[in-house]
Design a protein that fits this description.
CATH superfamily of chain B: P-loop containing nucleotide triphosphate hydrolases
Shape of chain B: globular
Distance between the termini of chain A: 56 Å
Number of domains of chain B: 1
CATH architecture of chain B: 3-Layer(aba) Sandwich
CATH topology of chain A: ABC transporter involved in vitamin B12 uptake, BtuC
Number of strands of chain B: 10
Number of helices of chain A: 12
Number of domains of chain A: 1
CATH class of chain A: Mainly Alpha
Helix content of chain B: 25-40%
Radius of gyration of chain B: 18 Å
CATH superfamily of chain A: ABC transporter involved in vitamin B12 uptake, BtuC
Shape of chain A: globular
Structural class of chain A: mainly alpha
Number of strands of chain A: 0
Oligomer: heterodimer
Number of helices of chain B: 7
Distance between the termini of chain B: 42 Å
Structural class of chain B: alpha/beta
CATH architecture of chain A: Orthogonal Bundle
Largest sheet of chain A: none
Radius of gyration of chain A: 19 Å
Order of helices and strands of chain B: EEEHEEHEHHHEHEEEH
Strand content of chain A: under 5%
CATH topology of chain B: Rossmann fold
Helix content of chain A: over 70%
Order of helices and strands of chain A: HHHHHHHHHHHH
Largest sheet of chain B: 6 strands, mixed
Chain lengths: 276, 248
């Protein structure tokens, strides 16, 4: 897609992948962070991680298994919380532990069997060896995330405000919530190859947290968060290739640094003392 | 036609040792002002949430606005205003009062639709009715508890409900705001919209006939018509009699 701008195919693919993944995750991150459901991010990422590990272990397609596993976990979150009468966060904690245990068990076993190298790409991602189809899939999920927010904006904003009040207003809260879970699951599973299971959470959490330091309304958060993700990931990919550094950890470090700066510079917590 | 018809309903929470609401029947007509009183944990809030389907009714028949609550709960919620009892909005909540009032219209608009001119008009009318024009563009988390309460009342008025339920709506409001809002509710009742209000303080009730429902331990122990000035005394007597009966 960006071949007209960047001649080197590897750099071009890495940049495209990083842009699509970070934009999709940062948009969904706005919803997740406002609903205090950050644990969805790391549960999904580790579910995808466990699924991919299972795929590798069975000799099946790792990405397909990652999608299937994270979709399965997404389908479990709501019903398990309801049935067990627990907060979604507690359910997510249990599912996170399950996913992590499955992943570590399989990776350890694969290391024992001499397949450790391929398993390590699941942990840290491998942005320079992506297939074109994977980038198209990422572009599709990026568009799906944007369309989801545009189509359900009023329902999403009401749920972000207060779930019980939204339900009392007659909004189909559960439907929108489950669609959100499935889109997060898809985004995370498809982004796994790029940043890996351990770093993907930063794409979900950091851009939205940075945007929340400066934005006073939800509409601007949905614009600023992907914009930050776009700028930082583009710079990160350029710097990584220019100075021969690992792409995904560099982008994660840059996003964390920008978050630290944004907390220091945030206007929100400043008290206007000019009228004292 | 009655707006609420409850016939021997039971409501239980999963894992609870006994039903929160037991064998409760109630009928409310258009234009009635219903006050629900009783001691703590009598089941008053659960009754409101059973009426709009937020809490599951396990047995009995519940028909609200002509709809079966057990089957069509979310359609009922589209038509019923409900001001919840406890809410907290943190100072960084990124929504203005006007946006929150507009959210009251979302259920009626349905999925995948955008607010229309009539929705914006209804929001402006609700803001004016409750008298929060000066707060409309402020973020809700920066408002006081009483101001937030008014925004939540406007949120439900904007919905143009067929039934309006309020759970202790005056807990954060000063006496002037209470009197002002009681006049608003009186106006709604006169237009035919029934009001169901759970309350613990009864000063400033409007000077219209009151349908008083007294609850205790998940049952209705008193269902009668009275005047505003008699409400507190009747509830006090009902509760004392029941306490004496249960202890003796």
């Amino acid at each position: 897609m960006l071949e007209w701008l960047i001649e080197n195919n590897v750099v071009c693919h890495a940049l495209e992948a990083m842009i699509f993944a970070s934009v999709a995750c940062s948009i969904l991150g706005v919803i997740i962070s406002r609903m205090s459901l950050s644990s969805i991010g790391f549960t999904m990422s580790h579910a995808a991680f466990a699924g991919a590990a299972l795929g590798m272990f069975l000799g099946a397609n790792a990405q397909v298994m990652a999608i299937a596993f994270s979709m399965g976990v997404a389908a479990l979150i709501g019903p398990v919380s309801e049935k067990a009468k627990m907060a979604a966060d507690a359910t997510l904690g249990v599912l996170f532990s399950l996913s992590m245990a499955v992943a570590i068990f399989l990776i350890s076993y694969m290391e024992y069997m001499g397949k450790g190298l391929s398993a390590s790409s699941l942990l840290f991602g491998d942005v320079i060896s992506l297939y074109r189809e994977e980038i198209y899939a990422l572009a599709a999920i990026c568009c799906l995330s944007i369309l989801f927010v545009l189509a359900f904006y009023k329902e999403i904003s009401a749920i972000m405000f207060n779930m019980k009040i939204a339900e009392a207003a007659g909004i189909r809260v559960k439907l929108v919530y489950y669609i959100l879970l499935f889109i997060i699951a898809l985004s995370v599973a498809l982004s796994l190859n790029i940043v890996g299971g351990l770093l993907i959470f930063v794409l979900l959490a950091a851009p939205a947290s940075i945007a929340s330091q400066f934005c006073f309304n939800v509409k601007s958060m949905f614009v600023v968060s992907p914009l930050i993700a776009l700028i930082v990931s583009t710079f990160g990919v350029w710097a990584a290739f220019e100075y021969t550094l690992p792409v995904a950890p560099l982008v994660a470090l840059l996003l964390t640094a920008v978050f630290g700066l944004s907390v220091m510079l945030s206007l929100k917590r400043r008290v206007n003392s000019s009228n004292y | 036609m009655s707006v609420i018809v409850l016939e021997s309903i039971y409501t239980a929470y999963e894992g609870g040792s006994e039903p929160v609401i037991k064998d409760l029947s109630l009928e409310v007509d258009r234009g009635e002002y219903v006050v629900i009183g009783g001691p703590n944990s009598a089941g008053k809030t659960t009754l409101l949430e059973s009426i709009n389907g937020l809490v599951k009714i396990t047995h009995g028949r519940a028909c609200v606005c002509g709809l079966d609550v057990r089957r069509r709960g979310f359609e009922v919620r589209r038509r019923v205003g409900y001001v919840i009892q406890n809410f907290y909005f943190d100072p960084f909540t990124p929504f203005t009062a006007q946006e929150v009032v507009m959210m009251g219209r979302f259920g009626r608009q349905g999925l995948l639709s955008r607010p229309k001119e009539s929705d914006y008009d209804a929001v402006q009318r609700a803001i004016k009715t409750v008298g929060i024009e000066d707060l409309a563009h402020k973020t809700i988390g920066t408002l006081s508890g009483g101001q937030q309460q008014k925004v939540m009342i406007a949120h439900n008025i904007a919905k143009e409900p067929d039934l309006f339920m309020l759970d202790e709506p005056f807990s954060n409001l000063d006496f002037r705001a209470r009197e002002f809002l009681q006049d608003v509710f009186k106006g709604m009742v006169q237009q035919g919209v029934p009001i169901l209000m759970v309350a613990h303080a009864f000063d400033g009730l409007p000077d219209i006939p009151i349908h008083l429902v007294v609850m205790n331990r998940g049952r209705i122990t008193g269902d009668l018509s009275c005047q505003a000035g008699e409400v507190e005394e009747i509830i006090r007597k009902e509760c004392e009699v029941k306490e004496r009966c249960s202890s003796g």
